[in-house]
Amino acid sequence: MTDATVQSSINAAVGLLRAAGVEDPVGDARHLMAHALLMPRGRLTLHLGDFIDPHHQDTFDRHIAARLRRQPVSQITGQRLFWGRSFRVTPDVLDPRPETEVLVAAALDLPFESVLDLGIGTGCIMLTLLLERPGTRGVGVEVSPQAYRVAWQNRQDYAMEGRMVLHRGSWYDPVDQSFDLIVSNPPYISAAEMAGLSPEVRDHEPHLALTPGGDGLDAYRAITAGAMAHLTAKGHLLVEIGATQANAVLAMMQAAGLVNPRVLQDMDGRGRVIQASRPA
What string of DSSP letters covers 212-246? Predict the structure, then answer.
């Protein structure tokens, strides 16, 4: 054992993280300590006065060193909670954000038996929809072989092989059927905006999942152009968008023949998701 307690080790780490400009030093230090101790975060408070053994201290120190390099907590722990479930996360996939739950909530308000997820990443959107809606089936498309493997692993973790098909490819290329629901959280950051991202995002998340380059709208051009051919009658399209992209994406949906487009806001009042439908 060392002379350090769990609390004193956390306190030391908080000072380092705060000095490095980490946004939530207390929350991150507690999360990483719980992970180092192999315990649920909710139980950490019960052990703050315990002395920490050298092995767990070394593990915690490595976690903090990675966080000081601004590696996201989810990549350090390899897990991220989304809609109350844990999903595998690696540097090869976009870290699931709470804001994306706006898309999931909107989708679950709609009737669907089949769903297509374009650019599936971790698979958290698709898996959440299928798990929340028993009896539904889905297809996910992913261009990155590394991200495809992460989605495959998350599918295995939830034993969803029978209901969720995965394809390697770009957008609609591997798909030849129609769906009641199409969802996507595509890359939408413009090339000019990349330099202003936080180090956690800019330096540690895959650029392929962040930006298509240029004005950031290329993914929406591809998605809206193929939507009518891949939606059933009265089927719905839901896409996550950047804060300034609502008008441009709305115009694309209308030009593609989709109807009743509307913008859904996140908890901060920003346009986060656009929903539209194929006519009957």
Answer: -STTS-HHHHHHHHHHHHHEEEEEEEEEE--TT-H
Structure tokens belonging to residue 2: 């060392």
Asked if residue 90 lies in contact with residue 150, where contact means CB atoms within 8 angstroms, the answer is: yes
The model's pTM? 0.93
Per residue in 106-144, pLDDT (tens digit) is: 999 999 999 999 999 999 999 999 999 999 999 999 999
Task: Compute the distance between CA of residue 80 and CA of residue 152 in angstroms, rounded to an integer.
Answer: 16
Q: Residue ranges of the domains in the chain?
A: 6-69, 79-277
Q: Hey, is 182 helix, strand or coil?
A: strand
SS3 77: helix
The Cα–Cα gap between 24 and 110 comes to 36
Cα gap 132→106, rounded to integer Å: 13
Domain 79-277 has CATH 3.40.50.150: yes
